[in-house]
C-alpha cells in the first residue's frame, strides 16, 4: 500500500516541525477507487433509532432519520448513533449521518499528517484520506471509542482509552492518585496502577508510627470511583489495582474482595438489596476495581518446588517475613474461586519483552490488562475485523491485511501529534514513547468459517501467524516512519533493548509450525515482515515503543458487525438480530454454513445440521455431522463450551507476537475446583502469558438478575407469608377434570405414504376426523410378526389414543422430531431430504400433512415449495396469505443480490441492514422470543441455562463477556472498558 521516500530527518522530535522537502510516505491506492469518493460507491438509507429499556419500558434515546450504509446492521447503526454522534439531540448541531463522524475523524488525521510531514505530496495525503474512509465505512477496522467521542470536536482531543498511573509512598502522591484517577473516570476512560511502593502495615513511618498500608488507601480510591460515574454515565468506572507478590500486605490484598463477597451474601440473606446498582451495595468496598497480583518467576518456582518465599520491606528491600509459597498461591486461587479476583500478572515475562527497560520497569496495566507499559503513560487502540480478509476460497488474504495494518498504524501514530491527555506526565510519556495498540476482532468467527477449531492446533497456528503478521507489519511501518519523521524520543537510550525484543518476536515467528496452506501463506509474509523490521530498525530506529495489543473490542466490535470480540471464541451458535423497520429474528450464526461446506458437507447435510442448531443451539447429535468436526463449533457458552485450557492455549499462541498483552477471561464452570484454578494460573506462567484472569460461573452475588434479588425477593416472600397467615382458610369443592376421548367416525378419510429412510422402506397410514385433524396413524416397518413390526404397532396405537384424547399433534412433533437413531440419512421425500431416524421422518411428514403453516413455521418445518418460495421472494408463505409471522418480518429485509454471480441458483441472498450476509437455504430464521433482546438472552431461552453476566444499566438487557469485562449487545455499553 505504501512506500517510503528516503531522506527523512533522523531523530527529529515527534510532532515538532516537518521533515525536509521530499520526505514522506507515498500512499498507493488499494481499497478505494480513483476518481470516486468511497461514499459514492455505497447505497445509503435513512433509519430511525429508538432505544428502549426493556425492563422499565422507558425510551432512553430517540433520533430519527439517521443515515447509514444499507449493509450496516440495525445494531451497528444504533450503537454508533447513541454512542458516537456528537451534539445535543434535537438540535441542528447534532450529527445524523455516519459520513459526519467519519469525516470529522479522518479529515483531522489527514490534516495532522500533512502538518507534521508524514506524506510525500498532497496527492498522497488525499489517497490516505480516501483509503482510511473506505476501510471505516466498510467496517474493515475501527479506532477505539475515545477517537469517535473526541476527535474533530470542541472537546479535548483525547484519543487514548488506556492509562497507567503511578503512586509513591507519600501522602501527596496518594492524594494526587485520587485526583488523577477521578479526572480519567470523568472523561469516560479507565486507569491502572501498582501500589507496591506504598509501605506495608507491618512497617514504621518516619514519625515512629505504623503505616496504614496500601489496602487502606484502596478504600478511598474505591469510594471515589464509585461516586464518579465513568463519563457521566451510570456504569462504574474501570480501574486496575496491582500489588507485587513480595509486598508484606499481599495476603490482606488477596483477601479483600473475597471477604467483601462474604459480606454481600450475609447482607443479602438478611434482606438487603445487594444486586449491582442496588441501594445497599454501596456499603461494600473494593467493587470498582479489578485486582491483580504481580508474581515473579522466583515466586512461581517456589510454588513448584514447595519452598518458602520472602516478603520485602518497601523502603529497604530486606526480607521481613517468609511465607510458604504454595500456601500463598493457594490463597490467591481460593480468592479467585470465590469472587474471580485477583488475577495474575507475570512480572518477569512482561519485562523480558519490554522495549524501554532503561527508562523504567513495567509495573502495571490498564483495567483490562492488555496495555502494559511505563508508569504515567497511555495507549490509543484500533482493531481490524479479521473476517473481512477471508477470501472466497476460504484462505486469509494476508497481503491485503498487511496493507491495511500499515495504513492504520500510520493513522494511529499521527493522532499522537495532536492528542490531548488527562495529565501532563501522561502526555509527556506518551509523546516521548508513542505507544500504539493495534489489534483485531472476529478471530473466533474467522476460525469457524475456515473450518478450524478454536481449541485445535490448526486454529492456534492460524491465530499465531495472523498476530505475527500484524505486529511485524506494524513495526515495519514504525521503522519506515522513523526514517521520515524520526524515532521516538526515548529510543536512543533504549535502542539495544528495543532491537533485542524485535529479534525475540522474529525468533518466536520462526518457531511457528504451520499445518495447512492458509496459515503457511500468512506465515511466509510474516517472516518477510520481521526480516524487514530487523533491517529497517537497524538503520532508522522505530517511531513507536509499542505497536500491538489484543483489546476487548466491545463497542467497536458491534460497530464493525463482528460476531466475536477480540481474541474470543464465538459466544453462541444462534444469534439475535434486529431488522430494519422493526422486529427481530433469531438466526443461526452466518459462519456455520460456510464452515460446513468447507468441511465437505453437501447442501442437504448443511440444511439438516443448521436446522438442528436452530432448534437446539448446539451441534451434539446433529444429523450427519461427524464427531471429529464438533470442535469447530465449540463456543464460549452452551453444551459444548470450551475447556479452560483451550482459552489459555489460544492466548499462548498469540502472546509472543504482541507488544502488550491480551484482554481475556478464562471461563470455568461453577463446578470448577480451586485446584483447577491453580492449574490455569500455573500453566499460564509456563506458557509465557503476561496476564491471566479467571471467572467461575455464579461466583459473584452482586449483579442484577432478571427476576430481581436481595431485598426485593425477601420482601415478596414476607408479603406472601403475611397474606397466608391473615387469610381465613376456606373449604372448597374439589373439581376433577378428566380428558374425553374423541373417537373417529366409522368411515374416515385417510392417506397412505410410502417412504425410505437411510435405505429402510416403510409405510404410514394416517386417518383424520371430519374436521381434517389427525386422529390415528399406522406404521409398517419390518416383516409381519417381527419384533420391530410389533413395536411399531404398539407405538401407533399409543400415538393414536393420545391424539384422540386431545394431545396436540404439534406436541408429538416437537418431541419426536430430531430423535436420532438408525436407520437415518437420505429419504425419497422431496419435502424432507434427510431424516435423523424413522420417528424424525414420520412426524415431520405428519406436520406437513396436518398442521397449519403458522404452527409448522414455529417448529421450523417447511415443504420444498415453501423453501423455494423463500429463496425467490424472501417469504415462506403463499403470496395471498401473509400474516404476522417470521416471513413478514424477513420479507422487507431480504432481496436477491442481482449483482451476485450466484444469485441465479438462489444460493446467496443479501439481508438489508446486515453485513452482506450469505445464508444457506437451510438456515432457520424465525422471530426471536419476545423475552429475548440479545444473543445472551436468546441462548438462555434455547438452552434453558443461565448466562452468568450482569444486566445493562442503560437498556436492561443481559450483557455478554468481552475480554475481561462485559459489553451490551443491545446498546453497546460496557461494564468498564472503552
In a few lines, what is going on in this structure?
Belongs to the ribonucleoside diphosphate reductase class-2 family. The chain is an alpha+beta fold and 978 residues long. The strands form nine sheets. Strands 5, 6, 7, 8, 9, 12, 13, 14, 17 and 18 form a ten-stranded mixed sheet that branches. Strands 15-16-26 form a three-stranded antiparallel sheet. It has a three-stranded antiparallel sheet with strand order 19-20-21.
Spell out the blueprint of helices and strands.
Elements lengths: L1 E4 L18 E4 L16 E9 L6 E11 L4 H10 L14 H18 L6 H16 L3 E3 L1 H6 L11 E3 L6 H16 L3 E5 L19 H14 L11 E6 L5 H20 L20 E6 L1 H9 L2 E5 L6 E6 H15 L3 E4 H6 L24 E9 L12 H21 L5 H10 L2 E6 L1 H7 L7 H29 L5 H21 L5 H24 L13 H6 L14 E5 L5 E5 L2 H8 L4 H14 L27 H11 L10 E4 L5 H13 L4 E6 L13 H17 L23 E8 L2 E9 L5 E7 L6 H18 L4 H8 L8 E5 L2 E4 L2 H13 L2 H7 L4 H10 L12 H5 L3 E3 L12 E3 L14 E2 L7 H9 L16 E3 L2 E3 L11
Parallel strand pairs: 6-7, 7-8, 8-9, 9-12, 13-14, 17-18
Antiparallel strand pairs: 1-2, 3-4, 5-13, 6-13, 10-11, 12-18, 15-16, 16-26, 19-20, 20-21, 22-23, 24-25, 27-28
Helix pairs in contact: 2-3, 2-11, 3-11, 5-6, 7-9, 8-9, 9-21, 11-14, 13-18, 14-16, 14-20, 15-16, 18-19, 24-25
